[in-house]
Amino acid sequence: MISLILRRLGLSIPVLLGVLAFGFLLLQMVPGDPAVVLAGPTAPPDVVAEIRKSMGLDQPMLVQFWMYLERVLVGDLGRSMISNKPVIEELATAIVPTIELMFACLIWSIPLGIAMGTVAAMRRGSLIDRAVMALSVAGISLPVFFISLILIQIFGISLRLFPFVGRGGPLWTLDGLSHIFLPALSLGMVFIGPVARMTRSSVLEVLELDHVRTARAKGLPERTVVFRHGLRNALIPVVTLVGLQTGYLLGGAVVTETIYSWPGIGRLAVGGILSSDFTIAQGCILAMAVTFIAINLIVDLLYSVLDPRVSR
Question: End-to-end distance of the chain based on CA atoms, in angstroms?
């Protein structure tokens, strides 16, 4: 297990470097000069030039990227050009709402997606199977911003059941649950479709294996055959999909947090890019990359639990 973790961490280093380099190049292409943003639009040219020199912006791009990596390695992500607060503090404040949103989304969408896919596989060709597949296709096809706007119109404006702006109190309070309901529902509806489809396909494939046929030949009930002998083996590709989709939730969270004014990493990143606050934007890219890598590491560890042959 330890060797597996070390191997995955070793492979994660070049991935993280590649993401940082790609994000750095993208931000270089964004219109706007960080020195002008920091000095103000009315600052004289000599002041702007001095700020550019102090920030290292007068150096070649490779030198700037190397200076950025040196700061990242010592935990210095710089200060926000707008609020002048350390980027670490801004990220620490924004990461908690994002984790809450992802947790509230995953805690119901994963079990429901697996249950829907399993029932559809057990009732293959039935009306239930077709209904589950129709809902799955709808969830995959509809973009998260469209689902969010529909939910806001129905539950927020027409029925006035749930608030749709900002973040409430902690999740264990009624105010917190009411504020997170619509954002978590929006993300979860996009998440359920792929999980249900993959679970259905995987369960159908496993049910044709020899050990499942043997279990049926022994006279075991179909429910016991599916849940005890089939579902565990069927979950291996589902875990892969869940890991990838959880990483993609970060992208969906950017849109969802912007629509619902949820004060998370996604909204912080959008605000940093729109206001040319490049240090905030770079910090958000780094935080998202580390989160994605951590999710994939957790998925690899779950592999070894579901199938011990993976860790050999």
Answer: 9
Q: Which of 227, 278, 269, 220 is nearest to 29 (CA)?
A: 278
Helix (H/G/I), strand (E/B), else coil: 75: coil
Q: What is the C-alpha to C-alpha distance for residues 87 and 162, in angstroms, rounded to an integer?
A: 32
Question: Along the 312 residues of the chain, how does pLDDT read in single tens digits?
Answer: 677 677 777 777 888 888 888 878 877 776 667 777 777 777 788 887 887 787 777 788 888 888 888 888 888 888 887 788 888 988 888 888 888 888 888 899 989 999 999 888 888 888 988 998 898 888 888 888 899 999 999 998 988 888 988 887 777 888 888 999 999 999 888 888 888 888 888 888 887 777 777 777 777 777 777 777 677 778 778 887 887 777 777 777 788 888 898 888 888 888 888 877 888 888 888 888 888 888 877 777 777 666 665 555
160 three-state secondary structure = coil
Rounded to whole angstroms, the Cα distance separating 128 from 196 reads 13
Nearest C-alpha neighbor of 132 from the set 117, 111, 147? 117
CB 197 within 8 A of CB 141: no
Token pair recorded at residue 223: 């429910």
79, β-bridge pairs: 86
Query: What CA–CA distances, in Å, run from 199 to 115, 138, 153?
Result: 8, 17, 32
Token pair, residue 169, equals: 């109190």
